[in-house]
Amino acid sequence: MQKIGKYELVRELGRGATSTVYLGNDRFTQRQVAVKVAFPDILKDPQRGRLYTHIFLNEAALIGRLSHPHIVQTYDAVVDDHLCYIVMEYVAGGTLETVCSSDGLLPYERVVEIIFKCTRALDFAFRAGITHRDIKPANILFTGVDPRQGDIKISDFGAAIIGSPERTLVLGIGSPAYMSPQQVRDQALDHQTDIYSLGVVMYQLLTGKLPFQARNSYDLIYQIINAEPRRPSALRSDIPASLDAIVARAMNKKLNKRYANWTEFAHDLAQAFRDRRLSLPADQMADFEKFDTLRSFAFFADFSDVEIWEVVRFSEWSHVSPGAMIIEDGMPGDCFYFLAEGELKVLKNGMILDLLTTGECFGEMAVIGKATPRRGADVVAITDTKLVRVAGSALQSSSQACRMHFYQSFLGVLSERLSSANVRLVTF
């Protein structure tokens, strides 16, 4: 079996203009990896060698910097005159290119979920000082065999701007069909160029067509700068007007009318989705809806996006009807809850102690206390209610950072309850 460095090369996965990507084995960590190997003489190319070196060095610079569930991880790199390769997380699925044709489109709800996850991943990169600069379907991977379900991961940060915004060569880096007006004009770039490019990706995933069709690069650049694309709903009748509006704002040619940041973009996606799925059962909510719900709770204010995605993965979501007993006084307990929607009452010996509303945490003492976990009160649903359940075992198995933030937030909850109790005692 062929080897490069400490990695066994199993088979070729793909080949591009500058490199070959192999499926590899890392025997030290016992995991499969993707190994991108530059063609032997590519860095010595008299015309483009400097650009190719920049691309590989960019990816090498990202080792350990972008640990996010929706970004392909870079593990290792070697860049020198004789050997150049990048070792990355292996993602078994294909790219979104496979669902960009009119005969293989995804449901628009799935498109919204994919784009939402991209906005959060690119916001994470932006906060780390990184602008991708080459967002396109070929650089967004799906993790399973079916692009209609499962997670996605953004790949290929070789063209990224790391640090301060800079100018770029229009023909040197990037894919013209997805470039923003600022990029084709060779202007200084920041995260808003990625917002535009993701808007183009969303347009293509919704319609199966690029927003601008051109005979050559010059015509394409002219249209990007001067023309307005047709609304997605004009090409696909089931697309709601809210998605037309989101695509139009993401792709606005004027920076002051484009989304100013990723949070605005993500918020509009979540709202558009929620408005059309009000009756959806809690256990059928999309992951990004769960993420957006948790992110809105004060309890999770200090959690990173990565930690909230972790909570989404290990939490259980359910619906209960009015009058349902959620927690029973004196019974054993090994989990705690968040109220995602609705209203609950807390009772002791039939007397109401408290009313709980959206975003509140309850039942945590059975998990964080040292004594035998027993419930100290009844909790009953007043209205139709959506609940988020977290098992104690899931909390203990979570990452150290996630667990630390839970305990910090628990302290905040307990402090508020003690303060409220003191006020009631003084009033009484």
Uncertain segments are 166-171
CATH architecture of the largest domain: Orthogonal Bundle
What average pLDDT do the residues reach? 89
Q: How many β-strand stretches? A: 18
Number of self-contained structural domains: 3
Q: What kind of sheet is the major sheet?
A: 6 strands, antiparallel
Form type: globular
CATH topology of the largest domain: Transferase(Phosphotransferase), domain 1
CATH class of the largest domain: Mainly Alpha
Number of helices: 13
State the helicity in percent bands.
25-40%
Specify Rg, calculated over alpha carbons. 25 Å
CATH 4th-level superfamily of the largest domain: Transferase(Phosphotransferase) domain 1
The side-by-side strand order for the widest beta sheet comes to 1-2-3-4-6-5
**Gap between N and C termini:** 79 Å
Fraction in beta strands: 15-25%
Query: Oligomer, anyone?
Result: single chain
Structural class: alpha+beta
Any overview of this molecule?
There is one protein chain. The chain is an alpha+beta fold. The chain folds into three domains: 3-89, 2-Layer Sandwich (Phosphorylase Kinase, domain 1), CATH 3.30.200; 96-278, Transferase(Phosphotransferase), domain 1 (Orthogonal Bundle), CATH 1.10.510.10; 298-427, Jelly Rolls (Sandwich), CATH 2.60.120. The chain is 35% helix and 21% strand. The protein contains 13 helices and 18 strands. The chain has helices at residues 49-60, 108-127, 181-184, 191-207, 217-226, 232-235, 241-250, 262-275, 287-295, 305-314, 365-368, 392-397, 400-427; strands spanning 3-4, 7-15, 19-26, 31-38, 74-79, 84-89, 130-131, 140-142, 152-154, 161-162, 316-320, 325-327, 335-341, 344-348, 351-356, 361-362, 378-381, 385-391. A six-stranded antiparallel β-sheet has the order 1-2-3-4-6-5, covered by helices on one side. Strands 11-18-13-16 form a four-stranded antiparallel β-sheet. A four-stranded antiparallel β-sheet has the order 12-17-14-15, with no helix packed on it. Strand 2 (7-15) and strand 3 form a beta hairpin. Helix 7 runs antiparallel to helix 8. The radius of gyration is 25 Å and the shape is globular. Residues 166-171 have low confidence and may be disordered.
